[in-house]
Structures are given as structure tokens and as C-alpha cells.
Amino acid sequence: MRLLFALGRHLPLRVLHFLGDLIGGLAWCFDARRRRLALRNIELCFPERTPREQRRMAYRASQHYYKSLLEYPLIWTGDAGRVHALAVETHGRELIDHALAQGKGLIIAALHLGSFEAAIIPLSAHYPITGMYKPVTNPELDRLSREGRMRFGAKLVAIVKRHGKRAVGSELLRALKRGEIVYALPDRDPPRGQGVFAPYFGINAHSPILSARLIQATGARMLICTGERLPKGRGFIIRLSEPPAGYDSDDLGIAAEALNRGIEACVRACPEQNWWAYERFKRRPFGEYCFYKGTQQLPKPDPRPDTSVPSAS
């Protein structure tokens, strides 16, 4: 692990991306599960595309996925000047200052599209940022990921279960009440009881409500963040944009639907860089069939979502 990181942090970005193209192409051929998942999701989200176009998108997404993995040594442990220089363009930086000036904190919805870490990690050198991360079983990789994400001053909250629930809300709430930035990853299926079903690409998708609850508790603003990967290792274009109206609604369903519309717009603008090999639509409303099962079975009913406001104590 140390050898791989020692090598990866010194290689030019164009070389890392070239290797990502090679490995991603091989994975497309041999990793049947990820290939099926990507194709199924793209078929669901882009039914207007021809089968050939869908396969092309899924193939390119496989290459971009492995580019993301190969970027970690550089972003987490590479020379600080190189890491800051990865963002060759940043659009919407002024929105951060405007939101923080209101004194109620800011939530950045960071998407698994391109490299959000190429944006968030350098940003923590200029703003107080707290983010969530999921510990990994490999202790060396877990250490590298934590230290890499905190290298410029960010704080991390581990997503761990306490009393059967994932407890992160109180730490994020305290950061927002201090008028700081927190970032969350809203394009994933949350655990049971921590989401609501809301449209995403025209499909009812189980969607997180943590950000909406934090906004209800603090009045914080929100921005959506993506790090679009440029060709030939030229770096990234960082885009910060406001989500559609309704993201701060008191109705969790309306808030989740608005955020999903914003996420969908970003994915449609750069679909090949989205992480498609993920069971985004696995959890279904009671009575609907799972999209990914070979043999269709009715899912168990979801419990009512936890709509309480997280405590700051």
C-alpha cells in the first residue's frame, strides 16, 4: 500500500489517467457484476439512448472510476502545490462567501461525479470544513484516507453506528451553528429510516434526508459541487451551483426531490464521469420489484423516516 502511494503521488496526472483508461477497460471485460450494474442504471436513467450509446457511456464510466482510485495517492499525499493546481477552473466560488456571510453555515452536496475530492480537500485550506467518511477495514488505507482528507485543516466525522443508528448529525449540526461548512454525499441510498422516496431520473429513489434536517435546524444554505475531469490529465473544472428551489422546504419529500433535480442536472451534463456501478435504486417502495434481482421479490416495507432534528449536545 505504501509503495503504491509513494509511486502514485509522484506520477503526472496524465499518466494516472492513462493507467485508469487501461485498468478501467480491462475491468469492463472481466468484472461482470460492475458492468451489469452500470448498464442497468444507464438503461434506467437514459432510456432514450441507443444500446450502443449506453454501452459506450458505461465503458467510459468504468475508466473514470479507476481514474478516481488512481488519483487518491496524489490528492491525499502529493505535493500541496500540485494538489491546489489540479483545479484549473473554479466556477461559483463567490457563492461560498455569500452563503457564509449569512452566518448560518453552508452544506456542500459533493457528488460522485468526476472527483469531488479534488475540489473539497484544497478548499479546506481556505474555509473551516467538516465532512463525513466511512471507515474502511484496511487500517493503513483508512489512515491514509483520513490524513489525506484532513491534510489542509478539514475535520472528519466517521459514519459509525451508535445504538443501531448512524450518528453523524450532531457533529455536523455543531459545525453549522458555528457558521462553518459541512459536506455530504447525497447521491447514495441511505440506510432504512434515514431517507424518503423522491423522483430521480423519473424513478422513485430512496434519498437521504440528513441535509434537509440540518437545514431545518439551522437555516444553512446549500451548494452542489462537482469536479469535472478534463481530458489528457489537464486537471479539473470545479463547479459550485445552487440547488433548485425547494431544497430548504420543511417537507422532507419536497426537499429531497429538489436536491435530486439538481443532482440529475449535473449528471446529465457529464454522464460518463458518474459512478454508475452502484445499486442506486436497490431500495424500492413497498410493493415494487427490485431492478437488480434476477428473480423478482417484493422488498420489505421501509420504516417511517427519522424526521427528528439532530441534537447539538
From TrEMBL:
It holds the Pfam family Lip_A_acyltrans. One of its GO terms (cellular component) is plasma membrane. Keywords: Acyltransferase, Cell inner membrane, Cell membrane, Membrane, Transferase. It comes from the Bacteria. The keyword Cell inner membrane applies. The keyword Nucleotide-binding does not apply. GO terms for molecular function: acyltransferase activity. Its main location: membrane. InterPro entries: LipA_acyltrans (IPR004960). It is found in: Cell inner membrane. One of its GO terms (biological process) is glycolipid biosynthetic process. This is Lysophospholipid acyltransferase family protein. It comes from Solimonas terrae.
